[in-house]
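Review box. Two proteins, two foldings.
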Amino acid sequence: MTPAPAPAPAPRAPRASESNSPAPSHEGRPPQGNRPAPRSGAPRSGNGNSNNRGRSNGGPRGGSRDNRRPQMRGGNSPTTKKDADYHPDPVAPNVVRIVPLGGVEEVGRNMVALEVGNDVYVFDVGFQFVSEESTPGVDYVLPNTTYLERNAARVRGVFITHGHLDHIGGIPFLLNRFGNPPIYAQNLTNVMIAKRQEEYPDVPKPELITVEAGTSRMVGDHKVSFFAVTHSIPDSMGIMVETPYGNVVVTGDLKLEHENGIPTDKEQQVWGGIGKENNLFFIADSTNAERDGFSIPESRVHTTLEEIVRGVSGRLIIGTFASQFERMIRIIQIAESLGKKIVTEGRSIKTNLEIAQKTGLLVVKKDTIIPAQEIQDYPADKIVILSTGAQGEEFAALMRIATKQHKSITLTPRDTVVLSSSVIPGNEISVQKLKDNLFRNGATIIHYRSSDVHSTGHGNSGELVWINQQVGAKFFMPGYGYYSMTWSHAKAVEQAGRAKDSIVIADNGNVIDIIDGNRLEVHKQKVPNSPLVVDGFAIGDMQEVVIRDRQALSKDGMFVIIATVNLKTGKLRKSPDIISRGFIYLRESQDLLNQARLLIKKTVEDSTRGMNPVDLDYVKNTLTDTMSGFLFSATNKAPMVIPVLIGV
């Protein structure tokens, strides 16, 4: 089967710090970072079919992968060049096929495909934020959709579990690649998708079909059911697809409502009902699988925050994730009941609260939310500020407040600051700088280590094991996480009694066939799975040589040589010009520059002696090698040497 036609170009993504779109769930996720404003214009669209096998930001998995897995089913096979061309035959009538395309080797870029009969179903279309150190200049990492492009005519729908960007962020970039199928999601999720699509006016709008938990419908030839799950954002849902051999159940991100480790009646009813079905294959969230026991209930966080809102004597500033809808709504409701005013700082918080009001999740009096410019009109103890930036982002609202750069808000010793979020791995230094700056202003700081002011949206291992036992599926694949997370999830359910040979720990691109409803087979080859990236205007494969050059430039800078060469004699017409960026400060390095110019002149003239005609490419290569060695010996740095030779 030939690849699907290339889609129309999609506009580049807005940078993470400037986007009007809803914020993602950040618990356990890489830092978002801040980027400069986007350039205008339409991007080029890659074909998503490169032989480059570079992995995503998560990098190769470390450690031995043989004896630690509860079950090895081909997922450990190395990615090969042949994988880029691998296209499995359509499923036989007795086969149900699962293909994870992203999200099982990293947190983010979630996407799983299910192929049964003549139908292909897609679960989530997310992206992954990346760090500047590992992939400088790259905005987002996307799943590779080559497999879906080749099967575009059979894709019946995309099912979105919830509205966080690691589950919806890839929609504007990827949906057109595989036929722009309809999207099925609950109301809030669809509103968030539609809001995000406003930033991409040149992309055809997808068909958004709103579904409700507890309902089902025929999509293609199969019945698809939807059920409610608990997460840090409303309208989160799981999906169940009925196949001839049993149901395929996908949870999305989730945790449990519980009291002291006992799931609530609501949870027992939902999961107990699913467990009564004939369940063939189960895919569940692994993000917090490395943590034992049960997570802190969100209700306890609400109680703690209510006590703080009621008890503080001065202004209260709460830094949180904009994705924490229920938490922000609860804070606003408490503040309003006490006659306090709310100030919102941060574009993503403003956007999400607008969405909450539009969908009826938040009903608030007109004068409860006020602009920051009106703070001085009210007593300090009547002000509650909701702010982004609890991860210490340099240009976020909370850091600008802490560093006295905010136009309207100046901290005083009477202020109390609550950091209602955990520290994302990699953000430790940024958060510490934020705390230091807050303390310099004399403010009182309350954070998750000192009080129950934050709860994760992902279940700990105790919750995951309980859910797994309730569902009782024949086969299980841990999803949504790095390898350490999926492995920990698999080990936890194995130790709780699940058979080792019923567990498959997958890599992105694995093709998992369930034959006759009772046998697992993982193909030796993978479908194309090298990550796609949003890089400026371009959307395509991650070019390792480009990333490597950017990393080199970021470490030691560049050294540019501009010289004019007489093509008849091989002599330099004048002393070469030198440009240095990120390497040395030219005004303070005149001795080095004089030596460099002499060496450049000697190298060019020696390499062209007797050469007729003069081969400038050969001279460039010789000059690059010579100057690289000289600069390293003189400075112990390795800048990128770029010779520009002009023949006259």
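Next protein.
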Amino acid sequence: MMSNEFQQINGILQADNLSSVFQPIVDLRSRDFFGVEALTRGPADSELFSPAVLFPMAERVGLIRELELKALEIAGRSFRNLALPVRIFVNISPMSLMAPGALEFARTLLSNAHIDAQNVVLELSEQYQTDDVAELAAALEQFKAEGFGIAVDDLGSGYAGLKTWSQLKPDFVKIDRHFISGIDSDPIKREFVRSILAMAHEIKSRVIAEGVETAEEAQIIRELGVRYVQGYLFGRPATVPSIDQNIHHLAARPVLRERALANRKTIGSLAQDFPSIDVNTRLADVVSIFKAHSAISSLPVLHHNTPVGLISRQHILEIFSDRFGPELHARKPVVQFMNEHPLVVEYTAALEDVSYLLTENGEQDLVQDFIIANHGQYHGIGKTSALLRAITDQQISSARHANPLTQLPGNVPINEQVNTLISQQTDFWVAYCDINGFKAFNDVYGYAMGDKAIMLLANILSDHVNSDHDFVGHIGGDDFILLLRSDNAPEVCAEICNNFKQQARTLYDAVARGHKGIWSQDRQGKRAFFPLMTLAIGLVHPDVDSTLRADDISTLASEAKKEAKLLPEGGVFDSPARFPGCWRAVS
């Protein structure tokens, strides 16, 4: 006899009693749709309306695959009616993808819905585990060959994790909402996102942050370099999706000072190579080490080179100062006396984040020492006093060399960053940005509006780069420098030019916009007509194997900018032809 739950699910399937809603996935650079995620809803006015109830019930009665396929069919029809020129992300379990006939079903669905496979991204649901990742990877290769995109959903939760991500090499990875919620006040979550972005860059996956609900969360993940976002802040699931006005409020926020820190040090630079001890080291031997090294205030306790504790000089001396301390404890292992919960930070952590971890609990005394690890293995000891000095020096240096208007780093940190990239033999591009028509605009509208134009460009530049890999500097006036490590630097610069051209129009009055320009005096004092402001970018791709220095690259970038200024409507000059031996051909 069929159970009541089986009959409920089967009845829904037979009657096509499902519907689809869509939630926007937003591109923070374009402030527009990047895609939509299709979400299934059950019968209205029923407990099965919620997917959190519907899908678990279908799994219990053995109809999960049938429900998934029916949901895909309904989502395809609904998406076709939207006529949105974007990707659709659809959830599906590995078992459905690996089932016989899955690819043929997908082809039929696309044909009926008149959807191109290249506009469909299959999101692998983390709710259902597969024991054979190799078989899943083989199935996905067939779908990829057909044109489908692949996404791993909810990274950081569920069964898949980083191992499955590395094996499947998806086109997209969606960070679980747990790591986005409260990221503005949680340095550990920020480090997690930074790590995911670095790995995604290596395997060519694009990162989407899920569950963004506050402007503070959005601002931080934008500063970290996340380009694609999804969450209630930008749009709720709806039959006809729309992007909330919050996206424009975010775009209007000023450049954060944190973005302006050039050559920002990581905590690894402060690591001191203290001796380490094993968990089984006798306490008498620990005392001997402290006596032999008077400058050492604590020792890391390791188990197979993994930090498990910290023992302080003061604690040991207190134990041995007791009348019978040496006799009672000298032969005991240090593991019985160590601090089992020391602060352990990865060597790539930013100084500011470690400082936050040290000071977030105001009820406890500030620790003197903490452990620095390299991928979980002991790397060295960090001193809180050294950290505070380094942060102070960094803030003073940043303030000294930052542009007072944009707070972006100026000439000194720009040159330092270029020299660092050259010395590390890092492949990079230099983009020299200059506003066409800025002087005329500043003369007609005044310096306050001129400052607005400069801040507009500063924000656009900061929005279009990956803050974990790229660098934005402000030489002065309307001149900016980008140091780009992205493979698609020419395309990024073209986007920046187009974006500035569109947004700069809003700074003019209606008459100027109607005439597509303004009248002002040229540099010779003659009255002349100046088109609306555009952006010129000279792009240099230096050969880091050569003997070039920062001054040489500055000269090349200036020459490229002069060529870009000759372009009629602004744009990017990236031809290497005039600089043989110093440039690389643009692929």
